[in-house]
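Tokens in:
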């Protein structure tokens, strides 16, 4: 059974850092692109970052470029999202998702087949 479990969310002050983890089970990362998405109250789910299954290339939303870094550990079958210089507008529930069809990842929700349950990130003083 394919499963994604996020962890690492919490409350942090503006300017602080968090590292989110997305642990995969039931499949191996080499066969799936992984995306991080977030959804704030009253807003649509949006793509934050992703890493491609084909070559490990990465993409970032303009709003997080230079602050967030996505990475994967094949041995642990886990993808990470390092978030630095956090802002109040980064507050949202963060989800990871897996796409087994496309060689290169995207920020399109519809391209992802499997989703984790989400982890809350709150940036506030």
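Residues out:
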């Amino acid at each position: 059974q394919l499963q994604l479990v996020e962890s690492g969310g919490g409350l942090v002050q503006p300017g602080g850092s968090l590292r989110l983890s997305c642990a995969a089970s039931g499949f191996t990362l080499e066969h799936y692109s992984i995306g991080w998405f977030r959804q704030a109250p009253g807003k649509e789910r949006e793509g934050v970052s992703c890493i491609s299954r084909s070559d490990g290339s990465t993409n970032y939303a303009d709003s997080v470029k230079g602050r967030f870094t996505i990475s994967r550990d094949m041995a642990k079958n886990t993808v990470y999202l390092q978030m630095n210089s956090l802002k109040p507008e980064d507050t949202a529930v963060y989800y990871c998702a897996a796409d087994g069809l496309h060689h290169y990842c995207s920020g399109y929700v519809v391209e992802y087949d499997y989703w984790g349950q989400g982890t809350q990130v709150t940036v506030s003083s």
